[in-house]
Every structure is written in C-alpha cells, then in structure tokens.
Amino acid sequence: MTKKRTVFLRVIVSVLLVCFALYFLQKLLMPKYVTGIVEGAFVAEYYEEENKDFDVIFVGDCEVYENFSPVVLWEKYGINSYIRGSAEQYIWQSYYLLEDSLRYHVPQAVVFNIQSLQFNESQNEAYNRMSIEGMEWSKSKIGAINASMTEEEHFLDYVFPILRYHSRWNELTEDDFKYMFHSPKVSYNGYFMRVDTRPVETVPEGNALADYSFGDKAWEYLDKMRELCEENGIQLILVKAPSVYPTWYEQYEQQVEDYASKYDLPYYNFLELTEEAGIDYSTDTYDAGLHMNINGAEKLAEYFGRILSEEYGIIDRRGNQELDDIWAENIKEYENEIDRQCEYYQVDKNTLYRYRESDK
Amino acid sequence: MDELLEILNDLHPDVDFTTETGLIDNMILDSFDIVTLISEISENFDVTISAEYIIPENFNSAQALYALIEKLEDEE
Amino acid sequence: MLFTSYEFIGFIFALAILYYVFPKKLQWMLLLLFSYLFYWIANPIYLIYIAVTTVTIWGCGRMIERNFATQSEYLKANKESLTKEEKKAYKNSKKSARGRWLLLGVLVNLGILAVVKYTDFIVGIFTGKGLGFMDLAVPMGISFYTFQAIGYLIDVKRGTVKAEKNLFKFALFVSFFPQLVQGPISRFGDLSQTLYAEHRFDWTNVSYGIERIMWGFFKKLIIADRVAPAVNVLISDVSVYHGAYAFVGMVLYTLELYADFTGGIDVTIGVAQMLGIRVTENFNRPYFSTSLKEYWRRWHITMCQWFREFVFYPVSTSKAIQGLAKFSRKHFGDNIGKKLPVYVSTFVVWFATGIWHGASWNFIVWGLLNWLILMVSEELEPLYDKFHGKFRFSNTIGYRIFMGLRTLLLICVLNMFDCYVSVSETFHAFLTMFTSANYSIFTTGELLNLGVSALDYIILLCGVLVMLIVSMVQVKGSVRDQIAAKPYPVRFVIWFALFLVILLVGAYGIGYDSSQFIYNRF
C-alpha cells in the first residue's frame, strides 16, 4: 500500500513539475511584440477590453489598423469601435477574427478592407503567427489555423507554441523576462500610431501581372464574411484604404465593384476620395504612401465617421457613463503616446493635424 | 582428431585446442579462419562442410568440429 | 512518416495505449494493422510489393516445411524396408526439392528488388544514357524487408527455424514497422520469440524503451540534423569546396551518418522495447574500432551477419570455390590455395554489399575498396603481429587511441563515396585534400558560412562529447541499467534534462529542413 502511494505521489509530483516547467518556458520563449514589431500583439489585446460592446468592427491588414483612428471616431461621432487587424492579415484570418468577435458582441457594422483579396494562400508563416497566435482558443481559432497553415507548418505548433519558438533561447532579451505574463498595451483599440512623416515622392508603377483575378479561396471567404454578416443583421462595408502602394490595379477595382453591386454592398475606395477626405500625401504618411500616419488616420476617421453615422445610422454612444469613462482613459493614453512619439521622432506636436485648430 | 588439431594449431598456434570450448563465443576464430579451416578440412578429410553447418555449436570446440566431420563422413 | 515527426510520436503513442488495453491475444494483430497503416501512409502502392514478398516467401517456406514432414514420415514408415543407400537417395532427392523452393523464393524476390532498384542503373551502363528509364518508385525499406524475408527462407530450408504457419503472423515479421524503414535485418529465430508473444504492461520495458527513443532523438535532432546543412553545402561542388573543405565535409558526414543511423536504430529498438519486443542490436560502438575488420563487426551488424551467413559462407564452401582452391593448391602451392576461398568469396560479398547500398558505381567502388583494404591488412597481419611483439608501446592506451583514430579516418575516407556524385569526383575531392593549400579556413572563419553558426558548432561539439561519454559509460554495461539503479529524483532529473535538451536545442520545426534519415534510401 505504501509503495503504491509513493509511486502515485511520484507520478503526480513529476507530472506537475514538468507541466509547470514547460508552461514557464513557453511563456518565456514566445515573442513578446512589445518593442520593434508590435503588430504581433494586436490580436491578443482585444480580449483585454472589459467592455466589448463595440458598434463598429474593422477587419483587415495594415490598411485598417494604421489608417483609421478609433479615438477620433469616438470624439467626433461617439462611435464605439475596434480594429481587429494584424500585419498582412489574410482574408480567412479576417473572417475568423470576425467570427471570434461575434462570440462577444454583434456590431452594427463591419468594415472590411479588401486589399487582402489578392492573396489566395497564406504567403508567410511569420504573418500567420502574428494574426492567429493572439486569438483565444475557440472554433474560430481552429478554423483560422487550418485555413492559414503553409506547407511547412503544423497544427501542433499552434497548440504548443514552444515547439515553434524552442530555439529562441539564444535570443532572449530582458523584455522576454519582463513581459512573460503580461505585456503593456501597444495599440489604441487596435490602431497603430505613428506621428512622423515621410512624404510620397514618386509612386512606383505596378508591374503588369499575368492574372489579375482573385483566387477561389479569397472569394470563398468574402462570401462567408458576407453571409455571416447577413445572418447576424450586420451592415458589411467594403473599403480600400488610400495607400498608394502596393499597387491597387484597375482590374482589382473592377472585380470588387462588380461584387459589391452584385450583392448590394457599399464600397468606398479612399484612393479616389483623397480630396474629399483631405488627405495630403506630403504630410499624412510616414512611409511614403504605404501607410497613413496619425494625420492621415485622423482625417480618414473624421471623413468615414460622418458616413458611418449619417448613412448607416451608427449610434452616438456618448453620454453612456461607462463608455465615457473608458474612452476618457483611452484618449489619455492616446495623447500620452503622441507626446512620447513626438519626443522620440522629434516632431513638433503643434504641427499635427489633431492640434492644428486652423484646419477644422 | 590429431589431424584436425594439427590444422587448428597451424591456424592459431597460441590456442590450446584440446581444452578450449568457446572458439566462436570468445571470438578466437573469425569468419576468415572458418573458411580457411573448411578448405583445409575438405583437403584432408574429403568432406565439405556446407554453409548450413556453420553454426557456433559445431565450431566452438575441436571435439564438436570433429564430431561434425564424422557425421558428415558417415552421410557421404 | 519520419521517426522524428509529431505524427510518428502520436502513432506510437496511440499504438502503445491500444496495445496494452486490447486483449493480449490481439496484440500481434494490432501490430500488423499498424505496420500496414504505416506503410500505407508512406504510399499505398508500396503495399503491393510487400504483400507479394510476404506471400511468396511464406508459400515457399510452407512447401519446404511440408517437404521436411513427408520426408520424416516416409523414413519412419519405411525404416525397416529401406537400405542405407535408398534412404540416402531419397533424402537427397527431397533435399534438392527443398533447394528448388528456396531458389524460387529467392529469385522472385531478388528479382523484384533488382527490377525496382537496379534497372535504371543497368540500362544506363549499356545505353550510356542517364537514369530515368523505368523511374520506378523504390518502395520504402525494400532492401531491408527483402533481405529479412530471404534470410527467413534460408533458415527454414536449413532447418534452423520452423516455417511460420500463419500467413498474417508472417506478414507481421516482414512488415514490423519500427524496423521497416532502415533495419535492423532481424532473424526469424530471434524476433519471433517476442514478436508474437503476449505482453503485459511492464514499466521497465516501457521506461527503457522511452529512454532509448529519446536517446535516438537526441542523436538525430541535436547532431545529425544540425550538421546536415553544412554537409550538404560541403559536398555540393568540389570546384568550390575542395581541400580543407572536403576534409571537413568528410569528417562531418561521418558524424552525421553515425548520429543519423544509430539514432534511427535507437528509435527502432526503443519502440519495439516499449511493446515488449526485442530487436537485435545493430551497433556496438563502431567508431571505437581499431581496425576496419573490427569496424565491420561493430557497424550495421545485422547486415554484415546476413552477408556473412547467407553469402560469404555459402560461396566460400561451395563446390566451385573449394574446387578452385584444390586446383590452385596443386598449381600455386598450399599458401595461395588456402587463402583463395577467402579472397574470392569476400570479393563477392563486398561487391554485393556495395550494390545493396545503392545502384551506382560509387557504392560498387566503395565496396571493393573495403574488400581491398581488408585483404591487404589480412596479408599484413603477420607483420603487424611481429611489430606489436617487438615494441612495448603497442599495448598502451595511447597506441590504441591512435589505432582507433586511424581507423576512423579510414572510415571517413571510405564514406566519401556516399557524398559525391561520381567515383571520379570522389577521387578528385580526396586528392584536393593534399593539393589545395586552403587549410587557412580553420582560422579565418569561413566555416561559419556553411549554414552552421558558431553556436551550432558549439552545440555539435557538446553533443559529440555527450555521445562519447555515454559510449564510455556503456563499456561498463547498459547505461539504462545504471540509470535505473539511481534514486528516483536523479532518474527524473536525467529524463527531464534529456527531454528539455531535445525540445529546446533540437534542430526541428520551421527553419530546419528535417532531413530524411539517411538510411531510408537504401
């Protein structure tokens, strides 16, 4: 009897020790995305929001998370929104992130940036990781993994990320220890801020492609996204952000327009609305036109927010005590970050659109 | 038997074949020795030990080997 | 399914659970099912090949067994009436009938092996065109299971083992999945003792098995797969990587081959042991050998045994060779006559060993070089003995280490045939080691540009040290017995440390092209 008990005890203690050790190692070895490539942290940050009752959800790649400022949407129109985007987020990932969000709340409108339609397969394992790893486990995450995996990847690597990051032990930094269990917030309701400027000088001509038509898998997920919105009574809005590069081909545009009119979906191509939105490529982009900086993101939010509230009746939630408090806090953090970045990039804060009263 | 011992001693002068019972198990004879031994035996005894008889039991001692030769001679 | 894949780990895990949960009577059937599943996953077409081999060898085995039975019945029934001569004549006729069944089984199966493996090569020799005439997919492990099955048939014919009655049990012997891919080549008499037996869950077996598997993973993932990228670069182009590079390539390849092949066999034996099945050891610290002859007793043991018992002895004791010996004794003297059988039959053996490894001139030349070196050192042995008798130091450890290193270097050189695309390129690469004056690469850091970083080299060095220490501990007896004798906390730390090292330092996952086990090809 005692022998049995010792064996039993041994097994229990050993298993616990192993599990704990592996858990800690995994936490340590996983990339933290706090400095440098912060985009990898966005997807996970969503779950930390206490109140997920958002009225507008943006899904897409960098063309949403760098180009629309949710703070301005709130300040100007009382729109309670969140961006679920990550670097080169493929359309199937956008679909599953939307499905995942619906587990918490049903928004009035979903805004999808159609840039990623051009990809019919995941192109890069690193981007898969950044888009999927932050998701909490659900049917949607499993779907996202299965839809995204490249040939070299394995499902098990997502279940136990330590298998993927096992060799990071020789590149650990202080951050890995510091942020083992909790990382600071790096986005503002999913928005990635940059205050510096690098104007557009030349727009590179896109190379001619052999085939411009979007692939079956891309269309399949657009259909699924549309159907998911229909089932839940959500207004789906398609947009193309005003990024001048990578090239948005005329042939691409035509396919999206055809799709939108076929299913009676609104589609806004901001490349053609820059004047109306007041986008100035000499001051509103930080990387020569690939992405907007804070000026561009705020102008777009202002312009698009009006459309959202006037044409789609997105309700003004200002006055709701809980949300007011949350947003007051959000705005404070947002402005702190502006200050921090202004110092870092040596930008005069008063030249920013946000603080230039004359423009408004 | 003496003839066989002579052949064996020729092969490994340093081994006492009258008493040794682990010629294979103790790796005294290797495969080359065995083949040389077989061709010597076929020269002197007029029997050819075919491959199926090359098992440790038959080669571990001079006695065993001699018994094998006798058995094969009987069958010829 | 690669041994180091998640799928394989899941596969054996699932099997082990079912194996010990199922009624024990069904255990061998479960093994057969999983073995065929394993083969089916690799490629369903392969199943046809292995099924044909199984059925033909089994059938021939049954016929030989029946022949034995009728013979003994007939002799028993007619004990009184037959004269000695009649008995002998009857026995001989029966024996040659058995020989015909054996021949049939061997020819059919060697024929299949020859067609799938060697057609392209032979056609290439005659037409001068390259490969790709038949372009047949060589079924996984065909060289191994064919030899194992043929070995069985010869054993049955010799009466060493009884033929297996049950076709399905025999199918398991041929297809037992842990050893299907790269051996060892088991003998029926050895493997059948535990393969079909009923096994109760036994913690010693399971823990020893897992330890052995982890050790195999260590060799494969820490060493073989880490060094592979560098080896692949080094042997890719002699015009770029000559001289010192060729030397480094040769040494690293020898390291890779050892870690890869012995690691794979460790996994094989470990998996079998987990299931209570004993598979013959295939290695005995081969790189500690002090001569090439010794090396071939300690490396790939089961293959060497197969060639010794089923090629070397039959050829050397055959009438033709013995006749030749007698003839040359008469004409060239006793000395040559005595040695001729050995020379001729080892030549045959090494030619066959070479061609068994692969259908190419590289392997043929490799085999014959092995033969040449073995024969020369055989001839020089009296000289060595004299030398060793004269000088005291030849008994010292230092001298033994010297002989070991010399042998290892020789093995390295022979292994070069495995690396380069042709015989001439191999010789060329070898010669550049003496003509290229680029040995400065050891100091200029060029070796860090081969896809292996400084850290990788350090890890490799540590890995080699660990292997060396384990081998030295092993001299005193089973390492796992020594571990098992330690108190539980110590055991736990050893297991967990080994596991963590494999998990963290192993060269697997994205970024590592988990290369196939080298011996899969053969």
Summary of the model, kept short:
Chain A has 360 residues and is α/β, with parallel strands linked by helices.
Secondary-structure element sequence of chain A? HHEHHEHEHHHHHHEHEHHH
What is the SS-derived class of chain C?
Answer: mainly alpha
Counting DSSP E segments of at least 2 residues, the number of strands of chain A comes to 5
What is the CATH homology-level superfamily of chain A?
SGNH hydrolase
Overall shape of chain A: it is globular
Number of helices of chain A: 15
Oligomer class: heterotrimer
Largest interchain contact: B-C, 19 and 27 residues
Mean pLDDT of chain C: 89
3D shape of chain C = globular
Contiguous low-pLDDT stretches of chain C (5 residues minimum) are 513-522
The end-to-end span of chain C amounts to 16 Å
Largest sheet of chain A: 5 strands, parallel
SSE layout and pairings?
The complex is a heterotrimer of chains A (360), B (76) and C (522).
Chain A: H1 2-29, H2 42-45, E1 56-60, H3 62-65, H4 70-77, E2 81-85, H5 91-101, E3 109-113, H6 125-132, H7 139-148, H8 155-159, H9 161-165, H10 174-178, H11 216-231, E4 235-240, H12 250-262, E5 267-269, H13 274-277, H14 294-311, H15 321-345
Parallel strand pairs in A: 1-2, 1-3, 3-4, 4-5
Chain B: H1 2-11, H2 31-45, H3 56-59, H4 62-75
Helix pairs in contact in B: 1-2
Chain C: H1 6-21, H2 27-42, H3 46-77, H4 84-127, H5 142-158, H6 167-175, H7 188-195, H8 203-234, H9 244-274, H10 292-298, H11 301-316, H12 319-332, H13 334-357, H14 361-390, H15 397-419, H16 423-435, H17 441-444, H18 454-475, H19 479-484, H20 488-505
Helix pairs in contact in C: 1-2, 2-6, 3-4, 3-5, 3-6, 4-5, 8-9, 8-18, 8-20, 9-15, 9-16, 11-13, 12-13, 13-14, 14-15
Relevant terms:
heterotrimer; A: about 350 residues; alpha/beta; Rossmann fold; five-stranded parallel beta sheet; 5 strands; about 5% strand; C: about 525 residues; mainly alpha; 3 domains; 20 helices; disordered C terminus; transmembrane (chain A); SGNH_hydro_sf (chain A); SGNH/GDSL hydrolase family protein (chain A); membrane (chain A); transmembrane helix (chain A)
